[in-house]
Amino acid sequence: MAVLDLHFLIFSTFFPLIFIILASTKSYFSSTSQKIPTSYPIVGSIFIIWKNKERRVQWISDILTSCPNLTFTLHRPMGYRQIFTANAANVEHMLKSHFHNYHKGHVFRLTLRDFLGDSIFNADGNNWKFLRQVSSHQFNTRSLRKFVETVVDSELSCRLIPILKNAADKAIVLDFQDILQRFAFDNICKIAFGYDPAYLLPSLPEAKFAFVFDNSLRLISERFNSNIPFVWKIKRALSIGNEKQLQIYIGQVREFAREIIREKKQELKEKASLETEDLLSRFLSSGHSDEDFVTDIVISFILAGRDTTSAALTWFFWLIFRHPDVEKEILKEIKENSEEPIYDEVKNMVYIHATLCETMRLYPPVPVSTKSAVEDDVLPDGTVVKKGTRISYHPYAMGRVEKVWGPDWAEFRPGRWLERAEKWSFVGRDSFTYPVFQAGPRICLGKEMAFLQMKRVAAGVLRRFRVVPVVKDMDPVYVSDFTSKMKGGFLVKIEERAES
């Protein structure tokens, strides 16, 4: 009842004004062809925002790609503004040339602090620099080779392949999105924490942590995208509604992370000569033993390692099924590299690399990324940015810009990333045109690790199996709570290739 009373108070206080303002603007509700939303005093564009709540990413993308400069300002209630852009020059301005002026910002950090704490995804300044410096050691060539040849290959051959073989033999329907998340979760825990959660056992054990983690992301995303921020702050202060539930979920996530930390501390204590090759050991050995701080690190790496690669691979396998010509070219490349050592085989898979890039152009794992202006500024396209304004660049929309990708931008065509002489060679795009892994000083440290993992999984699965969607005649729905997913999962049947 307290939640209903709070919403009623807000509604009864402000909304009579809304309908007076909008009484003479019937077109506001009926005009679905209008691209840039009309803004009104006090309420901004709240109704059209609510109308598109369930398709927020696609809606903003449609507006951006209709704007000549690929930038527009969204007006929320109470005069709050947020700038969105799909302009590569603006992205370079924010992420490189004027990097010092675009931080996560106070509002971002405050909103996400309950979940991300002071982790690298929620840090600015010296704290961010320290976290990045310590984390960078995890991504040298030696660590990457070990990751592919031991962690990924073991999880692939001992867990993923047997599950797929069993599903093929018994005609079992799998949620392949869930399988890939379990695979990625085991991998990131092993390489980052030296811990094996064993979520991809044949029994597919109950993934309580995954349920809690996903719900934490959903609720913190709702908070982050709130149109009237003081509502969630009041609800948190009173511990009611979804804010009460969020605190319960976050508490369970943090307890899971603390248990990993306690086990690692004990392991380091018992074995003084233990090699500190995993990220968690490095942080603990560097003198940062504060449990809350290290807990933030663990949660951030689970978020980065579990959700992004599994999201990309989910869309990859769906697109491969829809494009048999691409699958045929991939199988040819797998065969040509099959005699190479594992690490070299994966590094040499140029066509699969291009296919993954094309997948993430259309379905980026992180569709929107937000910064806050430290001081007043003007973007290269002339957009005025006031101090404190949130500005979001939109990789999902940027992958749909006709001026960049051509009139066939809607087509899934890995060849746009390739040139062919005697064999394929990869032709990349600059990271400001294609900021799927961010760009500039904050470019993703795990980019190469992610590609190695995804290429190894793609080759290992497609070499032996066809992944066949249960529903073939409908496109899946792209949804996002910070990271993207297929709504309702990705239900598939597995078919073993005769030639395997």
TrEMBL record:
Q: What is the lineage of its organism?
A: Eukaryota, Viridiplantae, Streptophyta, Embryophyta, Tracheophyta
Q: Which family does it belong to?
A: Belongs to the cytochrome P450 family.
Question: One matching Pfam family, short form?
Answer: p450
Native source species: Handroanthus impetiginosus
Q: Which UniProt keywords apply?
A: Heme, Iron, Membrane, Metal-binding, Oxidoreductase, Transmembrane, Transmembrane helix
Residues annotated as binding heme:
C444
Under which name does UniProt file this protein?
A: Cytochrome P450 CYP4/CYP19/CYP26 subfamily
- Domain of life, per lineage: Eukaryota
Give an example GO molecular function. Answer: iron ion binding
Q: Name one GO cellular component term.
A: membrane
Q: How does it sit in the membrane?
A: Single-pass membrane protein
Coiled-coil residue spans: none
Does Secreted show up as a keyword for this record? no
